[in-house]
Amino acid sequence: MRQITKVLWLFAPCMLLHAAPPNIVFILADDLGYGDVRCYNAQSKVPTPNLDRLAGQGMRFTDAHSPATVCTPSRYSLMTGQMAFRVPSGGTVFQGTGGPSLIAPGKLTLPGLLKKQGYATAAVGKWHIGLTFRDQAGEAIHSGERAAVQRIDYSRRIEGGPLDHGFDQFFGTACCPTTEWLYAFIDGDHIPVPPTGPIDKSKLPKHPYANDCRAGFIAPDFPMEEVDLVFLKKSREFIQQHAGKPFFLYHATQAVHLPSFAAPAFKGKTQAGPHGDFIAEFDHIVGELMATLEKAGVAENTLIIVSSDNGPEVASAVHMRADHAHDGAKPWRGIKRDAWEGGHRVPFIVRWPAKVKPGTTSDQTLCLTDIMATVAAITGAELPHESAEDSFNLLPVLEGKAAAPIRPYLITQAFGGARMLSIRRGAWKYLDHRGSGGNSYDKGDLQRFALPEASPEAPGQLYNLENDPGETTNLYSEKPEIVKELKALLEQSKTTGRSRL
Fold it and tell me: What is the C-alpha end-to-end distance of the chain, expressed in Å?
């Protein structure tokens, strides 16, 4: 009897996990850099107590990457486990009414996989993977310009959005909430309160971080400075309503994408200006979602992940460095759109009390595409060969059982999409192009950050991140054998259409 009891005790965690699969909350920041978070950068001028506490209660990854260096392709890759450069228009960044959806009909998605496992699924916040509005004649609108917004027939269903790709519920925006031409909330597959006229920008804050706001059309219920608080309210309601069964919440914030319109309660909260206040607001949102899970009694069996879709934006990086001695990409070279590390190395923090040891740090290389295979392993879901083509299972890392690297290599795409790819294997990183792959450092605000090119005639770049984490010395001409190997591996992955075996 004593031996049977001992066996049951040993297997109790597995039995519990099988009986009660974890809730999953994925919080995706927008343009939050590696150096913006205090637990990643001790010199950060913005306190991030909630993110720091989350890291202390779980695992902090130091070698995590967004699949791309801009919004849309990173979000596509997260939702599908497939690198966006593999699909048509995979380098597109949608604006306003831009579409159609990058996700093909029938493509297995992260929420779709979880829905099959009995999860309630919800997306709150920024979608930005493309969808289809129609005009009064029923014609699809796939232009992202201002005039396209005026053509929308708001009585018609919005196609290709979250509800068509595995989510039960959606409340959010088509693209960047306070940047694009359409300032209105989508609830499910409709906009219940359409725009009534053009936005009056004269009433909005004016500072160096406020300029990325197009003169589009706005709905009367759309608060430009409190959009993220609306999103927070919706996500808290979803958690409270679904605490009795497994749920997946994808919470995609406006913060900290420009314009930096922090809510009134956060203005002046930091000594790092409007963008610092916006980072503080994001940290607050993380803390509030953590508190909601605690209050609902589900925190112990909830897997929380916080990350970002790419590195910090040009204007925020430039002005934060000059005005506040704060480097959102620290210690890496490059920023949003760039193929260098600062464009795609991002914060990645995991808390899961049932499995993840508190206060741990991992140097495993990972990509946001890996969420899908990891979640499949956690929930016991089958992952078909033709799905999640670039996704690797990180569960052994979370459990502290990984003795070797999970990923054989990492591919990232810069702003140029399939024309601007990089591949990393171990310490070696090969960029299959010249320059940053995104931003111009020849003139303007970024010229002061340009580095001398060691091999100006080389068609590509090769760096050893172990010896040269700042990517300062291009070894393309000195290590032709490594260039050849990595370029061949990149071409093989492009040809086969996958990196997962």
Answer: 45
What phi, psi does 403 have (nearest 5°)?
-90, -15
Our CA angle for 64, 251, 334, nearest 5°, is 35
Q: Are 332 and 34 in contact (CB under 8 A)?
A: yes
**Nearest-angstrom CA–CA distance, 30 and 36:** 12
The domains of the chain, with CATH numbers, are 23-408 (3.40.720.10), 413-496 (3.30.1120.10)
290-340 pLDDT, tens per residue? 999 999 999 999 999 999 999 999 999 999 999 999 999 999 999 999 999
Residues pairing with 254 in the sheet:
none
The phi and psi torsions of 8 (rounded to 5 degrees) equal -60, -40
Backbone angles phi, psi at 476, to 5 degrees: -50, -50
Query: Residue 55 and residue 351: Cα distance in Å, rounded?
Result: 7
How distant is the alpha carbon of residue 360 from its chain centre?
22
By DSSP bridging, strand 428-431 and strand 421-425 are antiparallel
Helix (H, G, I), strand (E, B) or coil at 199: coil
Does 16 have pLDDT greater than 60?
A: no
| DSSP classification of residue 501 | -
Q: Return the bridge partners of 251, or none.
A: 27, 124
Residues 6 or more apart whose CB falls under 8 angstroms from that of 411 comprise 83, 390, 421, 422, 423, 424, 490, 493, 499
Secondary structure class of 431 (helix, strand, coil): strand
Residue written as token pair 């996700």: 103
